[in-house]
Amino acid sequence: MRGSLLVAGTTSDAGKSVVTAGICRWLARQGVKVAPYKAQNMSLNSFVTADGAEIGRAQAMQAAACGLEPSADMNPILLKPGSDRRSQVVVMGRPLADVDAMEYWDVKDRLRQVAVDALERLRDTYDVVVCEGAGSPAEINLRRGDIANMGLARAASLPVIVVGDIDRGGVFASLYGTVALLEPADQALIAGFVINKFRGARELLEPGLDMIRDLTGREVYGVLPWLDGLWLDVEDSLALDNRPAIGARTPYGRQTLRVAVVRLPRISNFTDVDALASEPGVVVRFVTSPAELDDADLVVLPGSRATVSDLAWLRATGLADALRGRVVLGICGGYQMLARTIHDGVESGAGRVEGLGLLPATVEFAAEKTLGRPVGEAYGCRVAAYEIHHGVVTAEGGDPFLDGCRSGSVWGTTWHGALENDDFRRAFLADVAAVSGRDFTPAPDVSFAALREERLDALGDLIEHHVDTAALLRLLEGGAPRGLPLLPPGGAPREAPDFSHNRSVGGER
């Protein structure tokens, strides 16, 4: 079997990433050689591949669903917002430039071929490539330069399934409207729908499924039930808006350990704390005000794409003062904020800025981004991690801690993913409990890697049990059904980019 398809969504956070991962895991379990792909990703949650390339964290998770080591081809273009108007453009795992929203349109023409070439390499290597769209294909103001949704689907002749989130309401209007707003050539590739996050009586939903089939002439390939506990390497901080405190509230010992994660405006790699929530008796919540720190045994100051700006936000909200005297772990950008001074002529251009002074360290921003997969030791435990930063921190005192330092009840490191190392995580939490005076004992047998595999299998099960998998196979092998009806108004026809010169277009694969 050989083929590809595109998983699009009616909105951001509709479930594209998890549906893509679920299809990948389901196919991999059938023995299919499958890989994920996302042409353009806008996310502050990223990962470093074995050869030092930076890609979206969601694509690394999808690669794990396929049983693969991730590669830059799986996410050739990554946008990392530093403000509402400017983003760092990462191309094939390496930073290219910082551009504003309008400047990116000039860059985009050069990137289109990069994205198509990456997909072509994957299609040459694997039997199936499951592509994920970005945002919504119905963002008609962006269609002219689109390289992630229908522009990609047209370029590579991909059948498209559209995922809608029923939990947020208006799913049928969103599905219908998504198709109706597209121009005819784009509509012809929309094969059908998947409804995500359903909870309730299926009998009440059935009439709507019949009506959307009649109205659009397209199949509803499946209805995925709501599934708790799937906080799995999400790429969008919007997912935090409705995220409750997570973790096991039943203590393993006699007490729970409460972790407060500061939700910075430009928070990055917040998935670092998912491993903490996997521990019995550890409850993790995201906070934005000093009062929310009152009962916290540990405060995590996570990564940031805008260290100096987010440090100013900490001061403006009063959180900077509230951190003093508390048990704190700073990771990457959070570690930089804890230092005495920050010299930033790169990210913000602010020059010398006073840090919080909770750790004896200084920060100097370098033009070259550090990308790596370091290995070290702490608490006598081996620690494998990854790092992504421009800020270079020099510890000038305190006790060594991974690549950073510790002073009293404050720890700092630039390493992401360190808490996924089970022995290290348990030793660190035991130390936190001792410092905070909490009677807490970490469980001895929690494997975060095994938990991630269980979650990926749960996503594969969702596809296997709740989606018409025979129809998915037909799409992969045969493309979008021919003769799909056009919906009024059908969108105003626009001149589509010409990809006819690319090897990935035209002809049967």
TrEMBL record:
Keywords: Cobalamin biosynthesis, Glutamine amidotransferase
GO molecular function: ABC-type vitamin B12 transporter activity; catalytic activity
Record has Nucleus as a keyword: no
InterPro entries: Class_I_gatase-like, CobQ/CobB/MinD/ParA_Nub-bd_dom, CobQ_GATase1, CobQ_N, CobQ_synth, GATase_3, P-loop_NTPase
This protein's record includes keyword Transferase: no
Matching SUPFAM superfamilies: Class I glutamine amidotransferase-like, P-loop containing nucleoside triphosphate hydrolases
Stretch list, region Disordered: 484-509
CDD domains: CobQ_N, GATase1_CobQ
Family label: Belongs to the CobB/CobQ family. CobQ subfamily.
HAMAP family: CobQ
Name of the protein this chain belongs to: Cobyric acid synthase
